[in-house]
Each structure stands twice: as structure tokens, then as C-alpha cells.
Write a structure and sequence with these properties.
The protein is α+β, with helices and mostly antiparallel strands and 276 residues long. The chain has helices at 11-21, 23-32, 39-45, 51-63, 65-78, 82-92, 180-188, 192-201; strands spanning 3-9, 116-118, 126-132, 138-142, 151-154, 158-166, 207-214, 219-225, 228-232, 245-249, 254-258, 264-268. The strands form 2 sheets. An 8-stranded mixed beta sheet has the order 1-3-4-5-6-7-8-9, covered by helices on one side. It is globular and about 45 Å long.
């Protein structure tokens, strides 16, 4: 059973709720990176990003200001340096992220095109309900320290999954991975065409594929590759992720996690979740 927690409020509040709820997982990442999590002084000393992530920090702040606020809240709630949260974004932009599954794809080629996140055999995943001020409520699957998501569905029945095929290149205008667009689409839009159109117009680095499904049966996909954008035939993105996986039911606003034994965990926007 994956941990389910709730986030509510302004961007910084959303991040703080996630940091508090996922503190153990976020601190484990910080420790892996050699970052101190002991005491306020240590956290403040570690607040400046390491050189290899300073540019990423600037680009998230410039192109994804709401997510930058969520990063600050998450770091505060988890009691870790901001660098740990930046590292989670950096890892989400890598093609070998377990969310990509076999072949670097993120959803199953079932007859009805059900968007499915391949969770892989390793790593920690969590489920998050998000009630952002001024946005649609959403249910997403993500990592403890990642402010974005790898898949989710909102209260209007828009479901989406995303996966990275290549990290941002040094010459790109935006070094923040395009996967960050997915969570913002779920917060803002109620239809597939709106989400696709917005993704085509927004900056996001690396080579990323985003697939959307609506409760009305509409399907669509787009690939971001540096400055280039192109619509895809949804069948072009198909794969066959095995368990464990998280499948999204747009019509029911639900997410079904299937573990390696075939045991299912069904979660909806109304499932009680932990919150501070």
C-alpha cells in the first residue's frame, strides 16, 4: 500500500504539507546526497544550491514560480536543504527514472488507452491529493521529494502521465525538465485539448512525452524536445508496463495501484488521506 497524504492551500502550503507527510523519504534522499538535516543552522547553511544545481534552481524559479514556492515549503516541512528538492527534480528529468518503465514509456496500450505509470521494481512512491487555492483538486502519483508528478487525475476527469526520454541540454533556454508541466495541467485544465495546447506553448527542458486522457474518452499526446513541440498519435507512445503500476481512471477520478503480486489499492479524490 502506497502512502496517501493531502496537501491544501497556497503553493508554499502545498509543499510544506508534502514535506511534513513525507519527511522520512525526503530526509533519506538528503542523506544519500550528503546533505545535513540536523538543526536549523545546518539547514540554512545548506540553503544555497550546489554549483551543479544552481542553474536548475534559477530556471525553476523563473519559469515555474509556483513550483519554486512549493519547493521552499517542501524543504521547510521536511527539514532539509533546498538542494535535496532540486535533486529530486533533476532525477525526474533523467531517462532512467523508474517511472519510465521498460522502453522509456509511461502508459499501457490497452484498447481504451488507460494512462498507466510504470512504478518499476525500485524506489519509493507516494500518492498525493492536492487542493490548490484557485485550482482543481487532483490525485497524483509522485516521489516523496518531487514537487511535480508522474501521473494523476483531477476532479474534472482529466488524467495524464509523463516521462522523460532525455535530460535538458546545456544550450537549452530552460533547464527545468518539461515533466513539471504535467502537475500544472492537472491543476489548471479540464480537457485534453486545453492541456496539449498549453504544453505546446510553455517552456520545459529535455525530451519529454506527456499523454492525456479525458473522462469523455478523448486521448492526446505531445512530445517536447528542447524548443520543438509535436503532437503524437497516442498509439505511438504505447508500452506494456507490468506490475507494479498505477493506472488512472479518468471517469471515476481514481487511481489503481497494482503491486507485484497483483494486489490492488484503489484510491479516489474522496479517500481519506493524512494531512497536518
Amino acid at each position: 500500500m502506497l502512502q496517501l497524504f493531502a496537501c491544501r492551500g497556497a503553493p508554499r502550503d502545498l509543499g510544506f504539507d508534502q514535506g511534513e507527510s513525507c519527511r522520512a523519504g525526503v530526509q533519506a534522499l538528503a542523506s544519500e546526497l550528503g546533505l545535513s538535516v540536523r538543526g536549523l543552522g545546518a539547514r540554512l547553511r545548506g540553503a544555497t544550491a550546489a554549483p551543479q544545481r544552481s542553474e536548475l534552481s534559477r530556471h525553476v524559479t523563473r519559469y515555474f514560480p509556483h513550483l519554486s514556492e512549493r519547493m521552499a515549503g517542501l524543504a521547510a516541512g521536511a527539514r532539509v536543504p533546498r538542494d535535496a528538492v532540486l535533486a529530486a527534480i533533476e532525477r525526474a528529468g533523467q531517462p532512467d527514472d523508474p517511472s519510465a518503465g521498460a522502453g522509456g514509456a509511461g502508459f499501457a496500450p490497452s484498447s481504451d488507452g488507460v494512462p498507466t505509470v510504470a512504478l518499476g521494481a525500485a524506489g519509493t512512491w507516494v500518492l498525493r491529493t492536492c487542493d490548490a487555492d484557485g485550482g482543481y483538486r487532483s490525485l497524483t502519483v509522485t516521489r516523496p521529494a518531487f514537487v511535480g508528478c508522474h501521473g494523476g487525475v483531477n476532479e474534472k476527469g482529466l488524467a495524464g502521465v509523463g516521462w522523460s526520454l532525455a535530460p535538458p541540454r546545456a544550450e537549452e533556454r530552460c533547464r527545468a525538465p518539461g515533466l513539471l508541466l504535467l502537475d500544472q495541467c492537472l491543476e489548471r485544465f479540464d480537457g485534453v485539448e486545453q492541456a496539449l495546447d498549453w504544453c505546446e506553448r510553455r517552456l520545459g527542458g529535455g525530451r519529454v512525452r506527456l499523454f492525456f486522457a479525458g473522462a469523455d474518452g478523448t486521448r492526446g499526446a505531445v512530445e517536447l524536445d528542447g524548443h520543438e513541440r509535436r503532437r503524437l498519435d497516442p498509439a505511438e507512445c504505447s508500452a506494456d508496463p507490468k506490475a507494479p503500476r498505477a493506472s488512472l481512471d479518468a471517469a471515476a477520478h481514481a487511481l489503481v495501484v497494482t503491486d507485484a503480486r497483483g494486489v490492488e489499492q484503489r484510491v479516489t479524490l474522496e479517500t481519506p488521506a493524512h494531512s497536518r
